[in-house]
Write a structure and sequence with these properties.
Blueprint (H helix, E strand, L loop, with lengths): L2 E5 L2 E3 L4 E9 L6 E8 L6 E6 L6 E3 L7 E6 L4 E7 L7 E9 L14 E2 L3 E5 L2
Parallel strand pairs: 2-11
Antiparallel strand pairs: 1-3, 3-8, 4-5, 4-9, 5-6, 7-8, 9-10, 9-11
């Protein structure tokens, strides 16, 4: 059974740090680009970051560039999102998603995802 399970969400103060994890199972993890998306209350879901199947290529939304870092450990079937200096506007439910790209690591846009996780909430507040 294919699964993507997010963890690590919670309450964080502005300027702090938080690391989200996305663990995959039931599919060949290193065939897939993995992306992080988020949805704030009353807003549409938006892309945050995406990393290619081998981890050499990644992309970020302008709003998180320089603050968030995506990485992956294919040996552990896990992708991480390191959130540094979060802001209140980063408050949202964060989802990870998988897009089949085989070994095309340069395909790191996550613009046609195949599977979604159920999300983990992040609240940035003092």
């Amino acid at each position: 059974q294919l699964q993507l399970v997010e963890s690590g969400g919670g309450l964080v103060q502005p300027g702090g740090s938080l690391r989200l994890s996305c663990a995959g199972s039931g599919f060949p993890f290193d065939y897939y680009a993995i992306g992080w998306f988020r949805q704030a209350p009353g807003k549409e879901r938006e892309g945050v970051s995406c990393i290619g199947s081998a981890g050499a290529h990644s992309n970020y939304a302008d709003s998180v560039k320089g603050r968030f870092t995506i990485s992956r450990d294919n040996a552990k079937n896990t992708v991480y999102l390191q959130m540094n200096n979060p802001r209140p506007e980063d408050t949202a439910v964060y989802y990870c998603a998988a897009q089949l790209t085989y070994y095309s690591d340069y395909l790191a846009d996550c613009d046609a995802v195949d599977y979604w996780g159920k999300g983990t909430p992040v609240t940035v507040s003092a």
